[in-house]
Amino acid sequence: MQDNKLVAIWPTEEKFANFTWQVSDVCNFKCSYCNPGNYGANQRNLDTEQYIKVLGLLIENFKKQGYKYFKFFFSGGEPSIWPPLIDICKFIRSSVEYSTIAINTNLSRSPDWWKKNYIYFDDVVASFHIEGCNQEVYLQNIDFLQYRLNYLACRILMHDQRFQEVVDFSEKLKSFLKNGVIEYAALFEELNPHSGMHHYEADWKREFIKNNSYVYKREVDFSFLNNTNKAYCEAFYSDGKKQTLNATRLISGGENNFKGWKCWINDSIFINPAGDIQLASCKMAKTIGNISSDQIQLESEPVSCALSTCGCGTDINIRKVSPEHVTAFAGKGSL
């Protein structure tokens, strides 16, 4: 009998525009396993008015192509300390009726900052970095956010030399977390999804990551939140079953090889710290402009993936389908 295989990553309802913005290379952490390009502070990117102008042009272009739903994902550096962030979130809320705003943060901002600004975010990925994290502040913020978001993920970076300390903290977090997800994430060599995966010499560490990639907890009814936006994907399998997409789980299970698949990178915008705009962050996408310029040449066609692996969570979230199932998904209304 053929093994059950991943055959598609597909929107829950309609196609959506997927914006990923690596807003700067400024970070208040300097983790030993991180790429200095994430904290070098050479690209501070403070021209809020210009960024809002270009973002508006991109949004209108997608609307003209029939996109109703939008997802915006901010990363860095550390996006919560980027001065333009909140003004840009306010602009998105005023410009897009059905928008999801997500942030990948080290959760180092004070509880007071989150109490003031949490309303601008639907999803929070709270990366835990043991070298720099104030664990008390992290837990205080988790306690506040877990009752106020559509989605909260505690992404635990598995530091090789301090692995047991990280595990110990995660056990404390398990008893603390009531509504959210805990993801155990293996390191990349330079905290860059296009670099190689870090190799853990100890067998028990590799086994731990393999067997403990994902913990889900939900104890509160969140139906009171605004869940009208459907800018999310599901993973479809050859046996007809599907599950909510979780990129960390796919990577941990080795299900992130999409070579030969049809991938709609034209659904996606990726902006790097230098302001360069691509369709997706991978090598399949060429640069189409810069956030500092109004001259942007958007593409409209999907591509056939030529890469052996996809290590970027936001790229994995772009709709894609294996060659033998393209016809079947053509009837789902998102093509």
Which properties best describe this structure?
single chain, 335 residues, alpha/beta, TIM Barrel, 10-stranded mixed β-sheet, 6-stranded antiparallel β-sheet
What's the short version?
This protein is of the alpha/beta class and 335 residues long.
Overview of this structure, please?
The longest helix is centred in the N-terminal third of the chain and has 17 residues, at 48-64. The protein has a single domain (6-330), classed as TIM Barrel, CATH 3.20.20. With 335 residues, it is an alpha/beta fold. The mean pLDDT is 91. The radius of gyration is 19 Å and the shape is globular. It has a 10-stranded mixed sheet with strand order 8-7-6-5-4-3-2-12-13-14. A 6-stranded antiparallel sheet has the order 10-9-1-16-11-15, with no helix packed on it. The chain has 9 helices and 16 strands. Helix 1 runs parallel beside helix 2 (85-95). Strand 2 (16-22), helix 1 (48-64) and strand 3 form a beta-alpha-beta unit.
Helix content: 25-40%
Distance from N terminus to C terminus (CA atoms, Å) equals 31 Å
Q: How would you write the strand order of the largest sheet?
A: 8-7-6-5-4-3-2-12-13-14
CATH topology: TIM Barrel
Work out the count of structural domains. Answer: 1
Break the fold down into its secondary structure elements and pairings:
Elements: E1 6-11, E2 16-22, H1 48-64, E3 69-75, H2 85-95, E4 98-105, H3 111-117, E5 123-128, H4 135-145, E6 151-157, H5 163-176, E7 179-185, H6 203-211, E8 214-218, E9 233-237, E10 242-244, H7 247-252, E11 262-263, E12 268-271, E13 276-278, E14 287-290, E15 303-304, H8 313-316, E16 320-321, H9 326-330
Parallel strand pairs: 2-3, 2-12, 3-4, 4-5, 5-6, 6-7
Antiparallel strand pairs: 1-9, 1-16, 7-8, 9-10, 11-15, 11-16, 12-13, 13-14
Helix pairs in contact: 1-2
